[in-house]
Amino acid sequence: MLAELDRAIASTQAHLLSLRNEKGHWEGELSSSALSTATAIVALKLVDAAKHADFIEKGAAWLRQHQNADGGWGDTTISKSNLSTTLLCWSALHLVGTSSPTAEHWIIARTRTLDPKDIAKAVIARYGKDKTFSVPILMLCSLCGTLGEKPWRHVIALPFELAALPRTWFGAIGLPVVSYALPALIAIGHIRFQKAPPAWWNPLRWLRALAWKRVRPMLKTLQPSSGGYLEATPLTSFVTMALAGAGDLDHPCLPLAVEFLRRSMRGDGSWPIDTNLATWGTTLAVRALEGSADTPVRRAVTDWLLAQQYRDIHPFTNAAPGGWAWTDLPGGVPDADDTSSALIALKSLLSDAPQRSQSSAEDTQNETLRTSASSAVETNVIPAVRWLLDLQNRDGGIPTFCRGWGALPFDRSTPEITAHALLAWLTWKAELPADLQNRIEEATHRALAYLAKNQASDGSWLPLWFGNEHTPDEMNPVYGTAQVLNHLGGSSRLSTLAHALLQNGLKYLQTAQKPDGSFGGDPASPASLEETAVALHALSLSGSPPSALRSPLDWLLQATRHGTHFPSAPIGLYFARLWYHERLYPVIWTLQALQSARQGLS
């Protein structure tokens, strides 16, 4: 058994290392997205149908080829059909002159009719008070002509004038969109105002007319040099089509936005939801490979990762310097999960250099790494730890982007990110100045209190940025619980402080395990490599007996063909309920699980 396991570990390590790019880090590959493809071809057609005809035709052909058998579309080619993506694809094809009776039948089965009121009601019901995605969907349908003769009355007005207020006020005024969707608030709010303005006697009519002159330039200010807002095709497309639909074709942000969309199309005519998750993927890969990467690899990755840390206030969310984003591209925004992962990865990278090696060249590189380690604490680690501590909400939890913007789901504190931050700052605590150590002590107790309050009665925690479309509520308690346990179990100090929480979480995982040893998003959903791997890693870190590790380990070995086959599942969430899968996830998490199980069986 152990020899077989060792071979699988070596094979998985080799495969993960082979996925690095020519610069030495990991870029990964996001799944192609029907939703992104639909939004991109609509944006390009409204800007200049003739100029972008090739892109539009290839995108439309891809949509037709990847329509599900039931007539709808899912977010990825292996996803279930859902209302949002089906409406967007149906509308995009309608705009380019392609009818889809099967899509219409699918929509009618969910909304009762194709009446605009029923469609709007169903879309709004799916997202509730969060307008981040419901309003863009209805705007696209209006622009494509699938929302009736008077479509704009079904599109909720967005208060784009609020963008003119100081950014520090945003948490208090309760924006109807999440923090990262500010460009959409501005552009979509403007076209809705233009197409269906308030009555002449309503003060909002005059306020918004005046505010547009001040807010309009912000779309260019917020735009990164790549042209893509958040490096995301949907957000960039929504801004582009809103401006084009409003006749604002001379807006200075449009040339770069259009170029980003053209550059982002894949050879098969599809678009991904984002360009890449390079920083996230690289930091996770480094942690999975801890101690097994050679010096040149560690040197290249260390230099690259240190260069990704933000040194200035970010114009998008007003974030202070010190954090990391999910990508190395200019459209990224610093966030807690990536900052935590970067800190933990840096500890591994900067602590692995041996005192002596077999060659003078490696000795030189190792000495460089040791020098980097001593200077990194002051230059990189302290600002990052302060950044994470400053992000902690009043409830003790850690949000993704901005402190205090908790009115909408994707801006709230979340358990797995809170546990991740706990591990990150405790990883470096002993090397930090006394004032930061004291802050960490106080923040740790508050964060653990948050985790205790937000642990469900069955012992589970619900994650924010991962879900499962096969569970009744599309949540993923297995992933959320496993990752909280993995983060808390990654530090002996945390394991001691959070012992009761860990035991309750472990009980939940045991009840969620399937008879064959595997895990899905919950006890009833299909198994995946990703969910089984993170759960096995959690069982191993918890000190579960070898008998508890063997069945999930056997399943993982069989499912990966002993470390040679890594099909990915769409459990990642991007924006509101937009599913994706990533090539690196099953490889990285399988490697972690196999290695921790190996230790547990020894």
Describe the structure.
The protein has 602 residues and is an all-alpha fold. It has three domains: 1-30 and 457-602, Glycosyltransferase, CATH 1.50.10.20; 34-272, Glycosyltransferase (Alpha/alpha barrel), CATH 1.50.10.20; 276-454, Glycosyltransferase (Alpha/alpha barrel). 56% of the residues lie in helices and 2% in strands. Strand 3 and strand 4 form a beta hairpin.
Index terms:
mainly alpha, Glycosyltransferase, 602 residues, two-stranded antiparallel ribbon, 2% strand, globular, 3 domains, 4 strands, two-stranded antiparallel sheet, single chain
The main sheet comes to: 2 strands, antiparallel
Question: In angstroms, what is the radius of gyration?
Answer: 24 Å
Number of DSSP-assigned strands: 4
Distance, first to last CA: 11 Å
- Arrangement of strands in the largest sheet: 1-2
Helix content: 55-70%
User: Any idea what the shape is?
Assistant: globular
Describe the structure concisely:
Helices cover 56% and strands 2% of the residues.
Topology:
Layout: H1 2-18, E1 32-33, H2 34-48, H3 53-65, H4 83-95, H5 101-111, H6 116-127, H7 131-144, H8 170-173, H9 182-195, H10 203-215, H11 218-221, H12 233-245, H13 254-264, E2 271-272, H14 278-288, H15 295-307, H16 336-351, H17 360-391, H18 415-428, H19 434-453, H20 477-488, H21 492-497, H22 499-512, H23 529-541, H24 546-559, E3 572-574, E4 578-580, H25 584-601
Antiparallel strand pairs: 1-2, 3-4
